[in-house]
Amino acid sequence: PPPIPPLPPPQCHVGAWLGPAAPEAGGGGTIHTSTRAQYWDPHRWHWAPTPGTGAPHLILGPHTSYWDPTSAPKFGSLIHPSALPQINKVAKAVAAAHTFFVANPEHMEMKQNLEYYQMMAGVKESDFADLEARPHMTEFRLGVRFYSEEQPAAAVLHLEKALQEYFVADTECRALCEGPYDYEGYNYLEYNADLFQAMTDHYMQVLSCKQGCVTELASQPGREKPLEDFLPSHFNYLQFAYYNNGNYEKAIECTKTYLLFFPNDEVMNQNLAYYTAVLGEDLARPIEPRKEIQAYRQRSLMEKELLFFSYDVFGIPFVDPDTWTPEEVIPKRLREKQKVERETAARISEEIGNLMKEIETLVEEKAKESAEMSKFIREGGPLVYEGASVTMNSKSLNGSQRVVVDGVLSAEECRELQRLTNAAASAGDGYRGKTSPHTPSETFYGVTVLKALKLGQEGKVPLQSAHLYYNVTEKVRHMMESYFRLEVPLHFSYSHLVCRTAIDEKQEGRSDNSHEVHVDNCILNAEALVCVKEPPAYTFRDYSAILYLNGDFEGGAFYFTELDAKTQTAEVQPQCGRAVGFSSGSENPHGVKAVTKGQRCAIALWFTLDPRHSERERVQADDLVKMLFRTEEVDLLQETSTEQEPTAATSTAGLHAAGKDEL
């Protein structure tokens, strides 16, 4: 995007407020941008009405502004993208925001803007358009999407169009390389060359630039690296798409075209043999690779030969953007030199890697020792909510970083949340639709916070019950932060209200658990007495909690074990309003005994200390709560909290994965 213009003087009017009054403002006013040092900041905001409620909502833009209710409501000469909603150009605002975010995916303020726009009435999915999208890349993405969706005809259409647009863009890119010599800053003051040297330098720069078009056309906004082998990949997709479409002539043509770049590709040669056998040798033999690709490859190889020659003889550096370049194109002396450099770099990299591993291991061991010691010293902070009390601590639970708290919910709140579960939950929710994910003797029904709020918004379940569910999870999070005396806030990793119900006819002779012993952030190997912290385990989880809604069932006790998954160290009987909290590491293997009769309901919560892994759905739920409930409303947290709340989670980078380890 173009650079942001310099900040206007203090008296410059940027935009007028046309919606409901901003907080503490008696009516309309004007947004000002200040050049004073204390106002300098890379963000600008304006208030916009929240959909459904009309409550003011903050929209961030490129400058920081402040609200002045005394100024005359009028527009000045500067209109920034964030002011577009104020002049009823929401579609353009959405497109501008989306375009900026595509190129700057880490920009949190613009991400918040887009999430707000998604909730606005009248905003269509088509409004989220990338205004700077390149035609060849757009067509390629569409082709790959249809290919993945097994729609070969549509995939062929878009991939062929992508090739046409690619060569249009390639021609334009190469033409732009034929400009004046780039002296790289002020080097022209010292540049001294005769006619032939100047011609060589300039021509090599032009050729290198033209080769760079491969990288330029394969690059996508917001991504660090270009798509590898971008042009050949078109024919990889096309050959199989044509085959699925029954067009063997085109499949052979695209296969042979791909083999121009990678003649030794085993899979592609097998495909060619198969297509040839199906079509017939006589019909397949005359089919040649596409002529324009043959010409493209030949031209590229001739340019590379010149560039590698100048690298070898004149020392003018050249980095080949392609992986398909034949080895014989590179001069032998240069190949040997590059081989030595690669081997040296690999050896140094390996040595550095081994050294870093040793340092990391020492640091981790020291940090673990310190952390374990501090955990024993630090846990035992206040619960911050009246009525809640510690029933069992780490000592009475025979472990570390463990606690059982009673009185988190009242009996009526437990009943209300159970009714919500029975009304809103769906079978297999959170388990990719599997109704009995852990044992065939029980069925699982669950609902997430966001889903409950959306159902409440639609009037399918009581909205206040969904709000209670949201507030209760916040309550548990605050208690965990305070009790374990954490110095940084916890962020939700996943939240799930789930009920597991015993199947009566499958209880006879049952010997399994409702959930076998496991660890929340590593893969438990009970035989080796180790827990490996690597995917597919949720390695980013740091603390876990379970809040029980009832105890009127048989079985279903929660228990801790040693690493052998057999030696039980403590057992907790579920009951209404009882919460179990613990750290998610190898110090706390746990499981759930079989539910043999009735229904066991609980809210399972996982937390992370790393905001990058905070739950995306939770951020959406936070925004929905703000939209549905006015700020003057006193929620459950404000009624019961006795201390100042910790800082709320702000990151939205976490991912919602299916198949959680329910507790």
UniProtKB/TrEMBL annotation:
Question: What SMART domains does the database record attribute to this sequence?
Answer: P4Hc
On the tree of life, the source organism's domain of life is Eukaryota
* Region span, Disordered: 638-663
**Where are stretches of biased composition, namely Polar residues?**
638-653
| Classification via InterPro entries | Leprecan_dom, Oxoglu/Fe-dep_dioxygenase_dom, P3H, Pro_4_hyd_alph, Pro_4_hyd_alph_FE2OG_OXY, TPR-like_helical_dom_sf
The UniProt entry's coiled-coil ranges are 345-379
Q: What is this protein called?
A: procollagen-proline 3-dioxygenase
Q: Which gene encodes it?
A: P3H1
